[in-house]
Amino acid sequence: MRNLGIITTLTIIFNSFVMQSVFAEEAELIRLQHRNRVSRNCLIAIMRVEDDLINRFVLNRSSIQQEKHFEYFNSYTIFFVLSYRQAGRDILYSPKLITDLAKDVFINCKDSNVSSVVFGMDASSIHVQFGEVNGKFSAFKCIEDVVPKNSNDRYEYPRIMPWGYQACAL
Questions:
Q1: Distance (Å) of CA 117 to CA 63, 75, 96, 98, 153
Q2: Which of 107, 51, 102 is nearest to 78 (CA)?
Q3: How far is CA 103 from CA 70, 71, 131, 164, in A?
Q4: Closest CA to 30 of 16, 9, 48
Q5: Closest C-alpha among 108, 31, 116, 128 to residue 66
Q6: pLDDT tens digits, residue range 102-129?
Q7: Which has the closest alpha carbon to 102: 166, 66, 49?
Q8: Residue 147: CB partners within 8 Å, gap ≥ 6?
Q9: Is the pLDDT score of 100 beyond 60?
Q10: Any alpha helices (H) in 27-123, and if so which ranges?
């Protein structure tokens, strides 16, 4: 009987801890941001991805930000920030899953002027960016594959990153 009481107490403590962390995460989701700049279809697609990542215990937060690239300055980027635990890395390094999630958002958010979708690891520069390049939806390529290294064995990054490329070696 005493073991049952201990198990019950531990279950209550665990559940309250989990619920507190879920509420903290939900406060930083796109669906709860009052100034959404997206259509209903776009928001539904974003919520599907948020739910998928929450159910996998990997979503830390999501956001919509104005694109900083000069060619797409009047458009938006959707960010999904994953936890830096193994589960988050597993999602980020699952090409089919991450592409399917990004494509769902991208296709449903075209009417909301969304130019790219980014999945990144919290507290790191590790990320994968998707968007339309040359009329086709795809993951951005690593700029390091096309830029030379200087005499100090460092990449010579362009001042303006070409659309369709991302820095991968940072």
A1: 10, 12, 15, 10, 31
A2: 102
A3: 23, 21, 9, 15
A4: 48
A5: 116
A6: 999 999 999 998 999 999 998 888 899 9
A7: 49
A8: 155, 156, 157, 158
A9: yes
A10: 40-55, 86-92, 95-108
Burial level of 9, CB count in 10 A (0-12/13-18/19+)? exposed
DSSP state of 70: G
Determine the pLDDT at residue 61: 92
Give the bridge partners for 77, in sequence order.
Answer: 65, 116
Angle, CA of 21, 25 and 28, to the nearest 5° = 155
The 3-state DSSP class for residue 54 equals helix
Residue type, 167: A
Confidence class for position 16, pLDDT limits 50, 70, 90: very low
Q: Residue 24: its pLDDT value, please?
A: 37
